[in-house]
Write a structure and sequence with these properties.
Helix content is 3%, strand content 46%. The protein is mainly beta. It has a four-stranded antiparallel beta sheet with strand order 1-2-3-4, with no helix packed on it. It has a four-stranded antiparallel beta sheet with strand order 5-6-7-8, with no helix packed on it. The model has no long low-confidence stretch (mean pLDDT 96).
């Protein structure tokens, strides 16, 4: 089962899977449609939003795989999709290739006025600067990344990230592990990494909890990993109490 990403801006919802053209629907609509003004020979691994624009992450364009490419649309207006995704003298669309990135982009997530881009082992910042360049890009971390799409949540100006080797939080500048020396070995030694495309993170704001959901083979799990179904374990972090607990998930 492939992951999908979603975004919402100017009363329009967008849904994307990397094997097809993105879809859109206005919030008062009833049916999703193929995204107009998007090249039908393009595919994106993830779609997010920032600064009134839509951002496509990790592109394949006319059959050419461009895993470090970030492409963004022109500004959108209420109830409408962007008019173009191709840079021109009269619009703010564009693209860039992060040539110094060591591995492919996986996802992105907003953090205040910027978009944080994640590969498996690096974290980059995409920041609006105006003018003809529109955005600037810089590496923020070279010792962190994300394990799958939809594995980041934001709370009070901080990202909580399900990384490849630890669960951590950061504000775009400083990074702090919240799992090492506590629950890290139990999570990572028992997880089924071959099914990481099913992993995800969920924020339960009412309980001040973040659920890091994954497939586990640990000896205490109620629903065993049979190689077919979804996540069976959640490592749950309470950021108010700074405590961990584990929940069973029925796939």
């Amino acid at each position: 089962m492939e992951a999908f990403t979603a975004a919402s801006i100017n009363n329009v919802v967008y849904i994307n899977r990397e094997d097809r053209v993105p879809l859109f629907m206005t919030k008062n609509g009833t049916t999703f449609a193929t995204l107009t003004n998007w090249n039908t020979n393009w595919r994106a691994k993830a779609i997010r939003t920032i600064n009134g624009q839509i951002v496509a992450i990790n592109m394949t364009e006319s059959g050419t795989v461009l895993p470090n490419r970030v492409r963004w649309s022109d500004f959108s207006v209420w109830n409408s999709v962007p008019g173009t995704w191709v840079a021109g003298t009269t619009n703010s669309a564009g693209s860039t290739d992060l040539s110094d990135l060591s591995d492919e982009l996986i996802d992105g997530w907003p953090l205040r006025d910027r978009l944080v881009l994640y590969s498996t082992s690096e974290v980059w910042l995409m920041e609006p600067i105006g003018g003809p360049l529109v955005f600037s890009f810089r590496r923020a971390m070279s010792d962190a990344g994300v394990i799958n799409q939809n594995c980041v949540v934001e709370h009070e100006g901080v990202h909580y990230v399900f990384g490849n080797n630890e669960i951590y939080r950061h504000d775009g500048i400083q990074k702090q592990s919240v799992s090492r020396g506590r629950v890290n070995d139990f999570i990572y030694q028992n997880m089924d990494r071959g099914r990481s495309k099913q992993f995800f993170v969920f924020h339960n704001a009412k309980l001040n909890e973040i659920y890091f959901c994954y497939v586990s083979g640990d000896g205490f799990v109620r629903w065993p990993n049979d190689g077919t179904y979804g996540c069976n374990r959640a490592a749950v972090y309470n950021y108010r109490a700074d405590t961990w607990q584990f929940y069973d998930l029925p796939y």
